[in-house]
Design a protein that fits this description.
The strands form two sheets. Strands 5-6-7-3-8-9 form a six-stranded mixed β-sheet, sandwiched between helices. Strands 2-1-4 form a three-stranded antiparallel β-sheet, covered by helices on one side. 39% of the residues lie in helices and 25% in strands. The longest helix has 23 residues. It is α/β, with parallel strands linked by helices.
């Protein structure tokens, strides 16, 4: 079986910001911190190596800050690794509700921008645009600026773009279903269709029950390193045991 994803000795560093506790450009200028040099680097991923066979559903688990979203962004070619090699065999779509839309552009224009970024041609996009709009249930609003959209409309369009561009590899960052009860059922059904059709799926989530019941394999990231990789039930059990050990250690230290 061909591997859909191969990562070999991948590490990712980010410049450590010299601006601490500053939340806007204006505040940074007023505090005189805007021109300070970065204070070294933060190593978010450390020597990551694994392969995902085509058709596998892999759960990506770990605490906040473990590097899950960074890993997904590298696979989606949003970030480039600092070192190491990444091989992707197929078209990738990343489902992350916080990425990719320009609020001053219309929904239709954002479909075009995102589709081109995912590697589709204008001809291919013309074939799927109506499907994207229909699935998102935004026919009346698709030519309005996205700044006028409600959060639910925004989420529906983001989800619809991700699942209607026929990806070979679907990356899901925390979001399996969105919207009200009706759209939640529809979106979850679409993801299940991908699974049944043999699409490779990587799901980053904190829902251990979903990982155990829905994923064939799991990868546990801990402080940017692979702590465990294999059968989803075994990896989840190891993750839960690690959390308990950490909690006991913290109790002993604080006591």
């Amino acid at each position: 079986m061909t591997d859909a994803i191969i990562m070999e000795h991948v590490s990712k560093h980010f410049k450590r910001s010299a601006v601490s506790g500053v939340y806007s450009l204006k505040e940074a200028v007023l505090q005189g911190q805007i021109f300070r040099r970065p204070r070294g680097y933060v190593e978010v991923l450390k020597d990551i190596s694994f392969a995902v066979p085509q058709g596998t559903v892999l759960g990506l688990i770990g605490s906040n800050g473990a590097g899950k979203s960074t890993l997904l962004r590298i696979l989606a070619d949003i970030y480039r690794p600092t070192s190491g090699r990444v091989q992707i065999n197929g078209r990738v779509s990343l489902l992350n509700l916080g990425l990719g839309f320009h609020l001053e552009f219309s929904g239709r224009e954002n479909i075009l921008i995102n589709g081109l970024a995912l590697g589709l041609t204008r001809k291919q996009l013309a074939k799927v645009t109506d499907d994207i709009i229909r699935f998102a249930e935004l026919e009346e609003f698709i030519d309005a600026p996205m700044r006028t959209y409600s959060s639910g409309m925004y989420m529906r369009l983001a989800f619809s773009v991700a699942v209607n561009v026929n990806p070979d590899i679907l990356l899901i960052d925390e979001v399996l279903a969105v919207g009200d009860a009706h759209f939640t059922a529809k979106s979850r059904a679409r993801i299940d269709e991908f699974k049944r059709s043999g699409t490779t799926i990587i799901l980053a989530t904190h829902d251990m029950n979903t990982v155990e019941t829905w994923c064939q394999q799991a990868l546990f990231l801990n402080q940017g390193k692979i702590a465990s990789l294999g059968d989803s039930g075994e990896v989840v059990a190891f993750y839960k045991d690690s959390i308990l050990k950490e909690q006991r250690s913290n109790q002993m230290t604080s006591g």
